[in-house]
Every structure is written in C-alpha cells, then in structure tokens.
Fold this sequence. Notes:
The protein is an alpha/beta fold. It has a single domain (about 35-295), classed as Rossmann fold (3-Layer(aba) Sandwich), CATH 3.40.50.1820. It is about 40% helix and about 15% strand. An eight-stranded mixed beta sheet has the order 1-2-4-3-5-6-7-8, sandwiched between helices. Strand 7 (about 235-240), helix 9 and strand 8 form a beta-alpha-beta unit. It starts with a helix and ends with a helix.
Amino acid sequence: MRNSELRSVLKVRAFSAAGLLFVLLSVLAGGAQAQARLSTEYLDSKSLERKVPYNVILPKGYSAAGEKRYPVLYLLHGLTGHYGDWAERSKVVEHSAPYDLIIVMPEGNDGWYTDALNAPKDRYESFIFEDLIPAVETKYKSRVDRPGRFIAGLSMGGYGSVKLALKHPERFALAGSFSGAVRGAEFDGAAFTGWKALADSLNAVFGPMDSKVRAENDVFKLLAAVKQEQVKDLPFLYFDCGTEDGLIGQNRDFSGELLKMKVPHEFRERPGKHEWPYWDEQIVEFLQLAGKFIGKDK
C-alpha cells in the first residue's frame, strides 16, 4: 500500500472513531438530561423578610418539554430539620423519576408552617401562599390550577400539610402526612422541658394555650368547622404513621374524625418508628398515589 493510501485509511478510521465517541457522549449526555434533576434555589421572601432556600426536583425531559406544564408537589420537612432533608436523607430524587412531577422542598425552620404569634418575622404560612407558590408558578413550567397542586410532609411537615390543606382547600387536590404531629397546635410547650427545640418552637409559634393562633391552626378544630356540604371540596387526604411511633394515637384519632364526617381519605398503619427509613418508604406510596391523580387529570 502506498504511503498516500495508508494516510487516507488512517484518516477515515480516526474520523470514524471520533464520530463514534461523539455519538456515545451525546447519548450519555441525553441520558443524564433525561433524569430527574435536583437544584437549590433562593427566594427573596417578603413574608419572612429574608432570602429563603428551597430544593427543587425537575422531572426527566423537563428541558425538552416545550409548553408542557407539570403538577407540583410541595414537600415539607420536620422539626429541627431543613429544606435539604428530603434530598439528603431519603431517595426522593430516585423515587420521583417515573413521574411527570415537579417537587419543591422549602425551608420551614421550626415554624410549624404557621404565622407565628411571638416571632413577627416567622410568617411561614404566608410564605407558602404569598411568596413560594407564586414564585414557583412563575419560574417553572408548572401548572397553576388546583388539580396540579399537591402538598405533603413528615412530622411537623405532616401537621403543616394537613393544616394548610384544610385552611386552603381550594389550593390543593391532594395532601399527605407521614407520621404527622397533627395535634401540634395543642402541644403545651411547658410539657416539653426536656426538648428545648420543641418547647421553644411551640412558645414562639403558638403562644399560650388559649391563644387565637392555636385555635385558628388546630387541625381538629379546622376539620370540625367543615360543613357537610363542603366535604366534597376538600383535598383527598393520605396519611400514615408507624405503629411504634409515639404519634400513632393522634393519627388514629384524626382518622376517626374523618370517618365520622365521611371525608375521603386513606390512613395506613405500618410497622415503623419516627425515622427516615420509614419516611423513605412512605414517600414512595404517596408518589404512587400522586401519579394516579396526575393520570386522572390528563
């Protein structure tokens, strides 16, 4: 073979190898883009008068979805936790992969997702409705209707999700609570001297036992105030609690009240404690339910 012919063959082979590498890299890049994507964002909150972080999971195919709009799940953390808990301590990013769903995980500090009585700058209910939801529905390709909005949380966040859903039933189609502290507004800070973070949060947010803030944010009182003709307008409620969890009694009580009022809901008791392995399992169950709601609304 002449030198000129050999150079031509080598050039063709080099080009083919480079082309193959380019194709492989493109496929790999496309595959990465096709997965759910986690990022941390910051919101200038007027309600809290400070910059507030939140995590967001965007579903696979989001960037290439064109004008498609996605439902949003607002996923709340528990007491002494923070906005990063769900992404760091559970497999929620992996669990969410099969669903066309945006998941927003905001910072709630120890504020019980309530406008605090004794901490004027901790207006966490106002933050959710006046700052966070409008910002999400402006920044992302999210749906802006009730059937496209879900809320859920664990422990303090379980209380928050149920409370917010009962106070604002026109905003959510589905609400979930995992090991929820559903009697949170009834807790007396003086009874928790051994748990300073809990006692301090109860005193700051709810104040004295006869305060107006407690009455207006008591899940059981909110439920009792629902008229029979309004039951059909409530979000569907999903909640669960581990049988070895100290909060099991109040969750059973709440289920009993819902049954009396014939409020559509699902309550599950499963072996488990107040811990992340249990919540990681339960977010899977809730996402499956959310997926059915998404499917119904197509």
